[in-house]
Amino acid sequence: ESKLFNGSEKDISLSSSKLTKKESLKVQKKNYREEKKRATKELLSTITDPSVIVMADWLKIRGTLKSWTKLWCVLKPGVLLIYKTPKNGQWVGTVLLNACELIERPSKKDGFCFKLFHPLEQSIWAVKGPKGEAVGSITQPLPSSYLIIRAASESDGRCWMDALELALKCSSLLKRTMIREGKEHDLNSSDSTHVSLYGLLRGNNLHSGENFPEIERHQFKDPDMYSDKSDKENEHDHDESDNDGLGKSEESDSDTSERQDDSYVDPEPIDIKETTYLEQSHEELGEAGEAAQTEVVSEENKSLIWTLLKQVRPGMDLSKVVLPTFILEPRSFLDKLSDYYYHADFLSEAALEENAYNRMKKVVKWYLSGFYKKPKGLKKPYNPILGETFRCMWIHPRTNSRTFYIAEQVSHHPPISAFYVSNRKDGFCLSGSILAKSKFYGNSLSAILDGEGRLTFLNRGEDYVMTMPYAHCKGILYGTMTLELGGTVNITCEKTGYSATIEFKLKPFLGNNDSVNQISGKIKLGKEVLAILEGHWDSEVTISDKKTDASEIFWNPTSDMRQRRLLRYTVKFEEQGDFESEKLWQQVTRAINNKDQTEATQEKYVLEEAQRKGAKERKLKGEEWTCKLFDQDSVTGEWHYKFADTRPWDPLNDMIQFEKDGTIQTKVRH
Fold first, then answer.
1. Residue ranges under compositional bias (Basic and acidic residues) (predicted)?
2. Closest of 107, 214, 183, 193 to residue 150, by C-alpha
3. What is the per-residue pLDDT for 588?
4. 357 with 525: CB under 8 angstroms?
5. Residue 663: CB atoms within 10 Å
6. Angle at Cα 44 formed by Cα 5 and Cα 71, nearest 5°?
7. Helix, coil or strand: residue 649
């Protein structure tokens, strides 16, 4: 029995099983290779032969999110195959039982609970399915080093425990007795329907003895998603693979999972259902300086301004005032907020930067890169409708990653826009909400963006909290209408102690052209000033080191830099919902582009009236508005994206980040 368990087909007798000293090394190696081929043939046959089944039934399996999923489990000698259903063969995963221990697990719920686990917290999963599937049908994330399973009754559970014990302890004996004669597949067969064992089970060893080459273990790093501390993953070193006797194709597989760099692209085609994004067809970039921020108002439009001014008084909030369409930029404010991510590759670089001071400088550089994109003239984006959403993304060619942007208008009175930005592969995400307020001062008005954004570097657990400048429009009654940015903003990282302060300066009454769009700032560690920033937010900014007095160009949106902007992709129009910005405002945008202010005003009124009607109906019914993508924290009042995933990227398990119906997701191998 011992010989059978260790995979030996030799006669049990002592004389034939022991190698004599006279046997040559060549003969020993030949026997060794034959044993490996035989063991490979046996296990491959048990996996592919539908008649070789110890037990099969429905079982409930608990995922990492602590919810249970009913799955079809097929127990074969040495492996537990898991499917979504028994008929259509939607493979979920394969558990390698030789790596597992089995234990009964106490539970308050009905049924019988037990746990399969690796005692050293290594992966228990094969990396490919019985038909060579690279990715299983994901129902919910499953743990990598253990499985908690529930049977319907105690008798069923005991039966499964006995069967698993048998499969765990006597897998070789079971294989031999259950494989029907003539059903074993030749390893050298050219039948392409059967995948080699090394392709199926690459990532775990098959036997604990020396009769089979140890194939590298597939490792995972996901410490925060397990139900208790004992289930957490630890990193372990790979043991050396014994490739003796393997062909070149098998040898080339031996170090696939050791590639942990972020540029690794999985060779298998990835089948995911995701939103279709198309490259942005048109983009408006205003020129630097004051000329691009001024508007000469026609006589016709001046009368509209006077009509507007009759509705307001100095100090009044303009959020409830209907603005004329000639000052509207033909896109939503939710779209406008995405202007900050055309240089999101600066954040990718910052996430990799080891020095905290240099990291802060890269964050400040990214922050300044979001302002030079501006419309020609004095324009204001649409006020978003309650429930309006906007989605877009940018592709990073250097890191082969994508930055996703999701925004929703979560409140109308007061007008609050919530947003979430994610690029898990490059190690960062942003979230925040903006309350847009407008104040009228007679000959000028200010659009104040009250709120903050929070940038997080996922691998470091660092948060950078930042505020926004306000937009100031002057020359409404007399003079030239001009738009400027003003106010002092702060970027603070509590964990590192570094902070930055930037003042956006309004043009003084007697100022020249050089005093337009000026900024000045400081980068500090605690209270110590390390560097001084000077320049213009839409052109060149210099940085001066306080210790060395050395100055250099910190940021300059030159034509070359503009050419290197990341390409933005927006959702295909046919796949947009009725409340997505482009589709929602399409009639207003068309009228503005056709310079038909009458039609634009009418179409804008239709949308605003529908919003008012909906608010009245909800008030009569006593209903509250429910947001689609964001939730408000009842304690802090902050808005959080419902599907936020802030885990560090795991290059061994995470395959690709994608978005579907407003949900940013990650396709995983297991």
1. 214-262
2. 107
3. 92
4. yes
5. 13
6. 100
7. coil
